[in-house]
UniProtKB/TrEMBL annotation:
Gene3D superfamilies: Putative cyclase
InterPro entries: KFase/CYL, KFase_sf
Domain of life, per lineage: Bacteria
Pfam families for the chain: Cyclase (PF04199)
GO BP annotations, alphabetical order: L-tryptophan catabolic process to kynurenine
Molecular functions per Gene Ontology: arylformamidase activity
Protein name: Cyclase family protein
Amino acid sequence: MSPDRRDPEGAIAEAAKSFSNWGRWGEHDVLGTLNFLDEAKRREGAALVRRGVSFSLAQSFDMNGPQKGWRRRTNPVHTMLDTGTDAALGNQGFPHGIGGADDVIAMPLQCSTQWDGLGHIFDHGKAWNGRPAERVVTSDGDLVTGIEHMAPYVAGRGVLLDVGQVIGDEGELPDGFAITEEHLTATADAHGVAVGRGDIVVVRTGRLARARREGWGDYAGGDSPGLSFTTAGWLHRTEIAAIATDTWGFEVRPNEFDAAFQPLHQVAIPNMGLLIGEMWDPDALAADCAADGRYEFWLTAAPLPITGAVGSPVNPVAVK
């Protein structure tokens, strides 16, 4: 049943209560649903490597990205500190002809392919596990659930759900298309793959493919296909470790209420403790999965251990 479009507050409160994982792994937990991804699940994922082919699921990190300044997010700025020109001119001061190049990058941590950390979203002033938001994330960063805690753990069985291909028209879903539990289940059935405890799920909508064809437009922050608010129960019940999409906002936009902003985030991150990835690029992987009929693979997608960060760039690598 669809929630009342006029009552986002009530729908969020009900879902937060129904699908909360607060206290599930103890009062000091900093991993949330990554607790589902254990050693046995990693062994299961590693056993999926047969051909040894690998795919990066990351977009490029450069000035040609999708960001246009919303929430002060910019595209990466890459600057050279030392170059071949400096070396050839002998300006580096090194002996016996050795030279080198160095560079630096400046960027918001969530400007391209990334993970949302557990300190990224709050619900009525509460962070993951019921902690007061003001005591978790301060001007010094996320003092409790900084994304550095997740760095060793995000590797295991990956599952691709190419909803765009199964449900969409010519491999793509239109903006505003709400992906329901029924769509996710139908896609998994079409792929002959099961989704369950400890999996890292990658959902392809085709939105990134369209942005590449037509230009970025409002890819970052605008209308988009995405998960329906009603999938909160599925996200909780399946006990997946993490989920990522090829869209900027993970959930459908416009959101499914008359006046709301990212309501599924408000349930999934601070209440469920779910690790969410955005702006991933599954297109090459999807083509290979369609060719060989296998939609499960080894996936490693460790965030950078940036102390106190509430998000991190990532280069997910799927190996089949």
